[in-house]
């Protein structure tokens, strides 16, 4: 068995912030041998909106008053059902074809770099009505922490295992959010400066209610290897620093000959890996083309990435502007989708739509539609551990690797597995002074008042880290 390098993406929701597997784009586009079954010619990719309705009475966008009622009643069932409805919509297969693969809804959306390029060119219509011609470019996460290579005994060398699992993400906006971004030239520093107020809190115009942003995270493995080893989440540990320290892995059979319905993760030294072997088709995935391979090598110099390698979805953040503070849900791959470990649960899993594809149904969900219970007002709420309860919502493949933030918050929290998406994104702001405060602190779960003094002389970015992290500073 070859040695494997495993990496951890230690990111907060990057922007404001993927999903059906197989044969390429990750959704029923191939026969049992993985060969494309659709022979349509490739065309320009038109961004497709999320379906307005779905199973179980799902609708998008949901009325904000309805969501606030869920929060007032602490109706977690409705919240989970809505999150699953979004996931079902994202994983819906379209009739658009790229490289022989029918694309899923989310795969038609423009990525953050494509939108930034439009803004850089002053193309205000770039996110509104112009198609794209390739998959969303994947980026090497800035906050990525490199784990030490996993050590495997020499007597395991006989098994062919992918040795270069590289972690890349691809933030994308739905058509409504993309049109907002380019129409407002929102990635220009000069534009953000125009919203600054002296001795007051500046804000950008809010995203429209139909806005939705996603951040899928992929491991890139090799088609030429028989098995690809992937870290598998089985539970939390406050001091986890890398995926390697989870010491629990599964093995994806690139030839889809496993048919294992009872996937049991093993540690990295276990020789008998049959019980931990699953099919590649248990993941949403696609094949990397030559252009993407070259781009990924630029993102991570030295990366052994080639055309034909496989991008395997392990995690994804999803957020919508259906309420002022956005809704927050995150999805991550799990070996046993019926009984996922925290931050998901058997209860959350029991509410999955039966209409999900087999691959999409292999992911667990965690939600954060409020910062704390009871839900607090946007301003003027309380941050009191004696009167509120924390709401934990994070993605193991993203936030679990955070070390201590340095300062314990109201609840005494300081680790990534004690975070809440909404709390963290509330502090996404632009600070024109360029001092240390230009880099907002990360926070574990707590209530954030949107009129807090920390925002004075800064510009709030409507919870969108993706604006700050992709700012065109010379524009």
Question: Your description of this structure?
Answer:
- By secondary structure, the protein is of the alpha+beta class.
- The chain has one domain (7-369).
- 16% of the residues lie in helices and 17% in strands.
- The protein has helices spanning 64-73, 76-90, 112-120, 175-183, 189-193, 290-299, 346-350, 421-426, 465-469; strands spanning 7-8, 93-98, 101-104, 110-111, 145-146, 166-169, 172-173, 202-203, 212-221, 227-231, 249-253, 277-279, 285-287, 310-320, 327-333, 363-367, 372-373, 389-390, 429-430, 459-460.
- Strands 4, 6, 7, 9, 13, 14, 15 and 16 form an 8-stranded antiparallel β-sheet that branches.
- A hairpin with a 2-residue loop joins strand 2 (93-98) and strand 3.
- The protein is globular and about 60 Å long.
Strand count, sense and barrel status of the largest sheet are: 8 strands, antiparallel
Instruction: Please tell me what the overall shape is.
Output: globular
| Protein structure class | alpha+beta
* Span of the ends, CA to CA: 50 Å
Q: What percent of the residues sit in helical stretches (DSSP H or I)?
A: 10-25%
Mean pLDDT: 84
What is the total number of structural domains?
Answer: 1
Query: Which ranges are low-confidence, i.e. pLDDT below 50, for 5 or more consecutive residues?
Result: 1-25, 27-40, 143-160, 435-439
């Amino acid at each position: 068995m070859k040695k494997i390098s495993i990496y951890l993406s230690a990111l907060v929701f990057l922007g404001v912030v993927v999903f059906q597997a197989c044969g390429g784009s990750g959704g029923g586009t191939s026969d049992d041998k993985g060969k494309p079954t659709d022979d349509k010619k490739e065309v320009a990719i038109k961004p497709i909106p999320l379906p307005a309705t779905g199973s179980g009475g799902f609708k998008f966008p949901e009325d904000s008053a309805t969501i606030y009622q869920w929060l007032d009643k602490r109706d977690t069932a409705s919240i989970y059902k809505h999150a699953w409805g979004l996931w079902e919509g994202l994983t819906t297969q379209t009739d658009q074809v790229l490289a022989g693969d029918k694309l899923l809804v989310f795969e038609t959306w423009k990525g953050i770099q494509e939108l930034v390029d439009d803004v850089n060119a002053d193309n205000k219509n770039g996110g509104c009505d112009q198609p794209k011609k390739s998959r969303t470019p994947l980026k090497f996460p800035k906050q990525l922490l490199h784990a030490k290579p996993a050590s495997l005994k020499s007597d395991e060398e006989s098994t062919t295992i992918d040795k270069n699992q590289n972690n890349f993400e691809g933030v994308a906006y739905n058509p409504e959010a993309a049109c907002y971004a380019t129409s407002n030239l929102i990635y220009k520093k000069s534009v953000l400066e125009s919203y600054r107020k002296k001795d007051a809190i500046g804000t950008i115009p809010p995203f429209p209610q139909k806005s939705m942003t996603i951040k899928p995270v992929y491991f890139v493995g090799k088609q030429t290897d028989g098995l690809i080893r992937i870290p598998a989440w089985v539970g939390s540990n406050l001091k986890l620093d890398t995926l390697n320290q989870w010491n629990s892995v599964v093995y994806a059979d690139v030839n889809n000959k496993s048919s294992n319905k009872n996937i049991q993760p093993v540690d990295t030294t276990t020789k008998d890996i049959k019980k931990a072997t699953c099919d590649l088709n248990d993941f949403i995935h696609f094949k990397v083309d030559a252009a993407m391979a070259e781009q990924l090598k630029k993102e991570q110099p030295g990366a052994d990435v080639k055309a034909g390698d496989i991008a395997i979805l392990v995690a994804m953040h999803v957020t919508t502007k259906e309420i002022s503070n956005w809704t927050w849900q995150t999805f991550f791959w799990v070996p046993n989708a019926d009984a996922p470990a925290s931050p998901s649960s058997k209860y959350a899993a029991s509410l999955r739509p039966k209409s999900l594809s087999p691959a999409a149904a292999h992911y667990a969900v965690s939600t954060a539609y409020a910062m704390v219970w009871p839900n607090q007002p946007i301003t003027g709420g309380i941050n009191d551990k004696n009167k509120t309860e924390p709401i934990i919502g994070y993605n193991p493949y993203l936030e679990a690797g955070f070390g201590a933030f340095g300062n314990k918050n109201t609840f005494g929290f300081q680790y990534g597995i004690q975070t809440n998406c909404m709390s963290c994104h509330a502090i996404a702001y632009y600070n024109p002074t360029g001092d240390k405060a230009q880099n907002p602190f990360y926070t574990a779960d707590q209530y954030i008042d949107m009129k807090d003094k920390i925002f004075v002389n800064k510009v709030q970015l409507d919870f969108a880290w993706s604006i700050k992290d992709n700012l065109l500073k010379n524009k």
